[in-house]
Structure formats: C-alpha cells, structure tokens
Amino acid sequence: MITELGHFALILAFAIAVVNTVVPMIGAAKGWDRWMAVAGPAAVLQLILVAFSFAALTVAFVGSDFSLRLVVLNSHTLKPMLYKVAGVWANHEGSLLLWVMILSLFGACAAWFGGNLPATLKARVLAVQSSIATAFLAFILFTSNPFLRLAAPPFNGEDLNPLLQDPGLAFHPPFLYLGYVGLSLTFSFAIAALIEGRVDAAWGRWVRPWTLAAWIFLTIGIGMGSWWAYYELGWGGFWFWDPVENASFMPWLLAAALLHSAIVVEKRESLKSWTILLAIMAFGFSLIGTFIVRSGVITSVHAFASDPERGLFILGIIGLFMGGALTLYAARANAMEAKGAFGMVSRESALVLNNILLAVACFVVFVGTVWPLVAELTFGRKLSVGPPFFNLAATPFFLALGVILPIGSILPWKRGNLGRVVRRLVPAAILAVAVAALIWAMQNEKTALAPLGVMLGVWLIVGAVVDLAMRTGRGSLGTRLGRLTRIPRADLGKAVAHGGFGVTVFAISALLAWEVEDIRAVKPGDSFEMGGYQLTLNAVHDVRGPNYTSNMAEVDVFRNGVKLATVEPERRFYPFAGMPTTESGILSGPIRDVYVTIGDPQPDGSWAMRSYVKPFANWIWGGGILMALGGFLSLSDRRYRVAAGASKAPAKAVPAE
Amino acid sequence: MRTLLRSAVLWLLLALPVYAVLPDEVLPDPVLEARAREISKGLRCLVCRNESIDESNADLARDLRLLVRERLTKGDTNEEAVAYIVNRYGEYVLLYPRPNGSTLILWAAGPVIFGTALLVAFVYLRRRRSIAGDDTLSQAETERLQKILQE
User: Fold this and answer.
1) pLDDT tens digits for A145-192?
2) A81 in the Ramachandran plot: left (φ > 0), alpha (ψ -120 to 50) or beta?
3) Which fold has domain A1-165?
C-alpha cells in the first residue's frame, strides 16, 4: 500500500514540477506577483512529495518487501540494517530518486533562504530548478520506475553487490549527489540571470555559498570514494582514473574554478560572462557524469548495469538543457559588461590563470574519458585510455596550479607588484627547497618524484601560512596571534583549503615514491620481513558473517621485535550475490600504514599474501578533509549570511535532512 | 533449497584465483620482476571493465602476466614484450594510447587548448587594463545596501 502511495506521490511531484516550471516564469515575465509567489510553496511541496516517495521506497527495503522488483535485485533478509537502507540508493532507480530528492531539497532551500533575492530572480531560479526536476521525474516515471511490483515474489532477494556493503560506500553516493545536484542551483541562478540580463556583485554573492556547498559535498564524496577504494579493493590504490571517477572529478574541477571566478564577480564585477559559462558547464558535467554512469557507453568498474534507452533519455536531457542554456548564453552574454579595470599583475589575473588551469585540466580529463568512444566511432580504432595517459596529460596542470597558488593568493586586487609578493614568499620557497634537498640526500633510490612533490607540498602549506600571517598585519607576535582569531572566517577558510591542497600533493608524492610492496606465499606460523616491519601469519580462521563467509587471517606486526598490533585481513565470499571480496587489514598510523591482504590458499598449505608499507597514506584524505573544512569555514562567514538573507537561520546552505 | 544449491555451486567456482599478482608468478630476478610489473601496469585486462592486468584477478590477466614474464626471461626488451602483446591482442590492450595517427589529437588536445586559453586571456587582460571602471552603485542598489547593512 505504502509503495503505491510512494509511486503516486512521485506522479504528483511531477505535476507540481511542471506547474512550477511554467507559472513563476510567466509571472516573472509579466510582473504578476501572485504567479511568482507560487514558486516558493510549490518548491517545498515538491520536496515533501519526493521525500515521501523516497521514504516509501526505504520502508520497502527495510522491511524486505520482495514483491518489489528493486528490493529483490538489491537486498536480502540477512543483510545488515545499514546496508538495507544504503541499498535504496545503491542501484539505478533508487539513486535517481535520491538525485531528484536532493534536487528538490536545493530548490526548497533556495525558497527558504532566498528571502533576500529580488522577486523576479527568485521566481526564475525556482522555475529553472523545477524544469530540471520535471525532466528527471519524467525520466524516473517513464524509464526507471523504482516501484515496479513482481507478479510472483520470491522468498528472498539477490543481495546487494558486496563491494558496496561497506560503510565508506554507503554514504559516498549521498554526498556525491549533494555535490552534483548542488551545482543545479548555480545553473538555475545562471539561467535566471541570463533571462534577467543582469549579473552583478550581489549575484556573485548569492551564487557563491551554493557553489561552495556543492564543492564541499563533492570533495567529501570523492574523498570517501577514494578512501573506500584504498581499503576495500585490496591493493591500496586511491585513484584509478576510471570513467566514473572522472565523472565526479570533472564537476569538482569546474566547481573549484567557479568558486574562484565568482569571487571576482563579487568583489570586482569582472569575469561575469565567463562565470555564467562556468556555472552552466559545471552542471553540464554533472549531467554528463550521470550519463556516463548510467548509459553503459563507457565501460567502467562502477557503472550501473544499464540499457541504451535510459542513456538516450539522459542524452536528450543533456541536449535540452545544455543546448538551451548555451543558446541563451550566446544571445545574452555580451549584455554582461564588466566594470572593474585591473592590471596584468593582480589578484584578478591570478584567478583567471587559476580558472584556465582548472578548466583545461577538466577538458583533458573529459577528452581522455570519451576518447575511446570517439576513436571507435570516427576513426574505427578500438583503443583504451588509461591511467598512464591521465597521469602524464593532466598532472602538469595541477602542478602548475600548485606553483602559482601561493603567489596568486596574496596578490592584491586591481594592481600588484610581483616583486613585493615574491619577497613575502621567500621563506616558503627556501623551506620548500631545503626540505626537497634533505629528502634527495636521504633517500636511497634517486627518484625526483618525492623531492619535487614534497617541495610543492611544502611550498603550498607554508604559502598558506604566509597568507594568514599577512592578514594579521604588523606588531608583536602576541598581538598578531590575537588578531588571528578575529580574521574573517572566509580568509581562514581560504588558507585552510589551500593548505589542505598542499597536504594532499605532499602525501600523494610521498606515497608513490616510498611505498614498499611484498608478495609471497606464507604458511601459518611463518614470519617475514617487509620494509622494516616483521609480519607473522599466526593462523587463518574460518568465520561466518551475517551474509558472508570469510577466511580471516591473524597477522602480527612487529617493529624491532616489539609487537605493534594484530591486523585481520579477510577474504570474504557473499554466497547470495555470488561474489568474493577482500578486506584489507590496516595498521594505520600518522606517518605510515601497514597494509596487509590475504589471497588464495596454495596447494602446499600456505596462503598468498600481499603486504605494503604505505607512507603518509592517511594524509591524502587528511588534505581532502582540510579542503572541505576550509570550505565550511568560508561558508560560515558572517558576511554570506547577511547576503543570503539567512541571518535568522544560522545553518544556511547545509541542508541536513 | 535453491539458494543452498546455488551457493554450493558458487563455492566450487571459487577455486578461481581472486587475487592480482600471485606469489608463484613472481620472477626470481628482482630487476626483471620490476620490469614486468611496470609493463603490467600499462596493459589492460581485456575481459575486465577497466583494470590493468597488474590489478586484475581474472584468469586472462594472469595469463597475460605470465606471458609478459615469459617474453622478458627470453630476453625481450620492454618495448619488444609490449609489441608482442599488442600484435596478438590489438591496440585495445594498451592503457597508454600511442601518440600516432588520430591519437595525436588526443595528446595534443590539452596543450593546444591551454595555449589558446592563455592567448585569449592575455588579450582580455590587456584590454581590461585600459577600461575605466564605473564603480558607483545605482540609486536602487544604494538603498538596498543600506537596508542590508541595517539588518
């Protein structure tokens, strides 16, 4: 019964989205206040209906209602509760419902916190947001209905893909979607501004918190996915340049670019048409990401099993929205005249360079991702584009970004003096070179990777500290430290996020350069030496989990004869899903992880074992957390709350469910 | 009963290797082994979605790993070993697309766009320098600003 109600609520939501697309848009064009006033309540009602529908599906999953096709395909009675809930969005139909729910959530947030927006702009933003919801609700209802019943329900389900039965991955999609879909709101703002024919500092100020929120969620989502890959896939890789990873990375890059260019719009009223274009493209890449994951045209480890009909539908949505938006852009963009003049050496120019580097990096990732398809269709060449290409073709842009970042972040607006800025950064440069030289002298193998990567990391981190120090002005150390607590949150956030980028750069180079790997067959009771640690395989136990069986190894880790810990890598088998998985045993530490996995039993009674020392592994995600934290700090800045008109609701733009 | 049967069948199937590089594949010569690993990272597991043979658990990936090692022990250089595999399995097996023919477009795309973007930005920035800015607010904007500041 509740299933049917959920389905019905979804149809109602569709109807409301259609109304909410048309009525406020006409109202804004004609200047009819009452028609415009429809937008807010309708957006909230749409959210309530979609949320109800989502809740209905969740109830079906939690109660293992096997008369629902989706539940049969993705659940099992023995599955732990967490994964019964996560199973709702671990499939095409359910995840799309989550997608639309978040879309409606952002629409409703714009209605709640947009009290300060001019009435026509608000009506248009909500109308555009609803038009996106209309398209995706139609997509769900016509091609991917999650509420399909089965005529003959089976006694039990087929279980969820066991790789997905993991806390890291359970929460990874909601965060990613909050990011992807958050960009829909900046898109709506861009389209509304194009229709209004007006982009000014206030617009920049309204758009930036939403972009920032979307970027933070994308950062967290990508970080979680990468962390999951690290501990779950069994050999400790953290980034694979897989099409689906790229699909989330491209909007992240553009959102980062947008974040920076919106600052220029806000503070200097320049780069307006470019910012609008970025806002359109950032959401465009979110849609392309959705297409890549669900169409099956590009092979990937994580793609949902999907069919061409759905792919075609999404392609139609992309064509409609991007085609429409870009046409509108072409017609209206030159109406956005820029105001502020600035010199070649200025914060503005540095941010332009930042935007170029981020956008070109995104372009390279995009070309590499779709190239196999293009090459096959147009040149008849069947080829692969894998990590070696991306590492070589995209990394230089990130390195260049790292080099200019500390300089650009302390350059003054309008007109700067490069010599003066560089002098400020001399300590950072000296420290970075000194650390690099020290590492070069200390390491046994003479690879340039570690010294150069670490040099860049130190340059970025110390650069962020210099940035903060400059904000405290002159005076004794005490007074400057005192001022540090009072500098605006946005400036603090900027330094923290930039420092976080440095930490990630440092950690990735350190990990790649100094990793130790060991592969061998080990008999229970035997010990071996690996990268300064002694590992002993005590025993391998047979263990039964709720919905899996497992060979759990007990491995003691020693350093200089002192036992540090016992790790328990597993080799699991999920009989209902028919899939094996590896669970690595990790001894985590601040400067290194000891990472152990267990493989097959060998004929002579030994077990295949792979073990690694992974230096600074946790710092990769630590940097990501710092970046997200920087974003949060910036988001909590008072000045935005005033601008967004949410001074009464302090938790703005953090749409918690 | 059906699930029980099915799980029993699956248990039998589990005799498949579920592991990337296995201990018995590793060559005794560490230099040769390192070269084999390097090559493996650049070769695609043809039956997998998007994995190199170095990461993959599939049987075919194991066969390819063994083949690479066999070629290396027979005295092939890295290039010869890769060429041998490409000869047999086609260009698709390479994760690093060779920069020849139409693939040149792929490799050139990034640098060309970057150069163009720099040029356009340079022209734009030069123009920005000379435009006199009108930084004043309109009447309505000033009123709004006052209102916001009072809140």
Assistant:
1) 999 888 888 888 887 777 778 887 788 889 999 998 999 999 999 999
2) alpha
3) Four Helix Bundle (Hemerythrin (Met), subunit A) (1.20.120)
Contact at 8 Å (CB) between A174 and A308?
no
In terms of Cα–Cα distance, which of A504, A512, A488, A526 is closest to A612? Answer: A512
- Kindly state whether A469 is in contact with chain B, defined as any CB-CB distance less than 8 angstroms: no
- Is A328 an 8 Å CB contact of chain B? no
Residues B64 and B25 in one domain: yes
Decide if B98 is inside a domain: no
Which residues are A535's β-sheet partners?
A: A528, A557
Classify the C-alpha dihedral A291-A294-A296-A301 as positive or negative. positive
Angstrom distance (rounded) from CA A613 to CA A442: 18
Q: How many structural domains does chain B have?
A: 2
Strands of A479-532 (E only): list them: 516-522, 527-530
- d(CA B115, CA B143) in angstroms, rounded, equals 45
Residue of B nearest to A380 (CA): B102
Q: Is A239 on the interface with B (CB under 8 A)?
A: no
pTM: 0.88
Closest CA of chain A from B3, distance in Å: 7
Residue (of A458, A460, A452, A450) closest to A511 by Cα position: A450
CA distance A590 to A89: 34
What CATH number is attached to the domain comprising B85?
1.10.8.640
